[in-house]
């Protein structure tokens, strides 16, 4: 059979081409060149002594010359951009994973959940850089960060689960004082605040509210019991909270409204709670809270003429 190139080696089953040196300390080299005189580039494959296989280039353009394009040591370590790889794959330069392909860590570990250890761009239906923790099933996958110097997130943080802090919780570098709680400061920002006695659940009070006069009048308030009259006082028809802090209210309202049959409109009852001196969004007075649909009976009185 006539050769189709200047050199063609053909044999049944296996064809070999061998470049030999005289000693294991020697170097064998294959040069693929497209030079014309001094112009052009040589692509060089070198077996240096017994250290490994090196792929390099030599060119009349300095930027085309590279002595460490690709290296494979006899230990099996592969280097890209380095002649001294320190791992199975050692890359000196950027790495790209194109399109929607994933990078998987822990492949081949027995019992690993199929997607555990994978990361990708907009992967698994999520929009963003996606990480899947290590684990054996979808309920125990976990990610652990060793970041003794701190971790900084530049942007909003969304937590879709429970939060567990084994160290200090700091707000703008401030861990707060003993006994303070993290709350809103009424300006859409969190802040450390000292809770009031009422917020500490140390104050309990019960009031009896009655009114037998006309509509739109203040109610009569009688104190049934009050565990701290310094913090909560009831002067007349008002309830005064004499300590700044956070308060939680719970209660029920029952009553009866009598109206004449001659009324041409449906009777209604509204209970308004006015908060004086309080602050709401933007440090504005909160105004009033109207409680509708309270537990009231509407009884029609019969009048004979």
Description:
Among the domains are: 1-95, no CATH class; 205-301, no CATH class. 0% of the residues lie in helices and 30% in strands. The chain has no helices and 19 strands. The protein has strands at 27-33, 41-48, 52-59, 66-73, 78-80, 89-91, 103-104, 118-121, 129-131, 181-184, 190-193, 205-210, 220-226, 232-233, 240-241, 254-260, 271-274, 288-291, 295-301. It has a 6-stranded mixed sheet with strand order 1-2-3-4-5-6, with no helix packed on it. It has a 3-stranded antiparallel sheet with strand order 7-8-9, with no helix packed on it. Strand 2 (41-48) and strand 3 form a beta hairpin.
Give a concise summary.
The chain has 305 residues and is an all-beta fold.
Number of extended strands? 19
Strand order in space, largest sheet: 1-2-3-4-5-6
Q: Any low-confidence stretches, pLDDT <50, length ≥5?
A: 279-305
Order of helices and strands: EEEEEEEEEEEEEEEEEEE
How much of the sequence lies in strands comes to 25-35%
What is the radius of gyration computed over CA atoms, rounded to a whole number of angstroms?
A: 41 Å
Helical residue percent band = under 10%
* Intertermini distance: 133 Å
Structural class: mainly beta
**Tally of DSSP helical segments:** 0
Q: So what's the overall shape?
A: rod-shaped
| Largest sheet descriptor | 6 strands, mixed
Mean pLDDT: 78
């Amino acid at each position: 059979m006539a050769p189709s190139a200047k050199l063609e080696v053909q044999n049944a089953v296996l064809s070999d081409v061998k470049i030999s040196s005289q000693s294991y300390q020697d170097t064998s080299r294959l040069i693929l060149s497209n030079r014309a005189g001094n112009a052009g580039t040589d692509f060089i494959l070198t077996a240096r002594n017994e250290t490994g296989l090196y792929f390099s280039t030599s060119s009349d353009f300095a930027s085309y010359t590279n002595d460490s394009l690709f290296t494979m040591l006899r230990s099996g370590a592969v280097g890209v951009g380095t002649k001294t790889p320190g791992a199975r794959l050692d890359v000196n330069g950027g790495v790209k994973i194109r399109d929607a392909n994933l990078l998987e860590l822990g492949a081949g570990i027995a019992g690993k959940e199929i997607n555990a250890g994978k990361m990708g761009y907009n992967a698994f239906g999520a929009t963003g850089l996606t990480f899947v923790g290590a684990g054996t099933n979808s309920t125990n996958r976990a990610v652990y960060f060793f970041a003794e110097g701190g971790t900084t997130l530049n942007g909003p943080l969304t937590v879709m689960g429970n939060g567990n802090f084994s160290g200090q919780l700091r707000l703008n570098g401030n861990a707060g004082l003993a006994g303070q709680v993290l709350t809103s400061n009424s300006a859409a920002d969190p802040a450390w605040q000292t809770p009031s006695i009422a917020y500490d659940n140390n104050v309990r009070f019960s009031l009896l509210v009655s009114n037998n006069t006309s509509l739109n009048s203040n109610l009569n308030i009688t104190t049934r019991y009050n565990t701290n009259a310094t913090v909560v006082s009831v002067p007349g028809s008002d309830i005064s909270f004499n300590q700044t802090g956070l308060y939680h209210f719970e209660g029920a309202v029952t009553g009866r409204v009598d109206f004449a049959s001659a009324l041409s409109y449906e009777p209604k009852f509204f209970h308004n709670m006015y908060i004086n001196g309080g602050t709401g969004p933007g440090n504005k007075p909160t105004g009033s809270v109207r409680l509708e649909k309270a537990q009231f009976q509407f009884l029609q009185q019969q009048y004979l003429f």
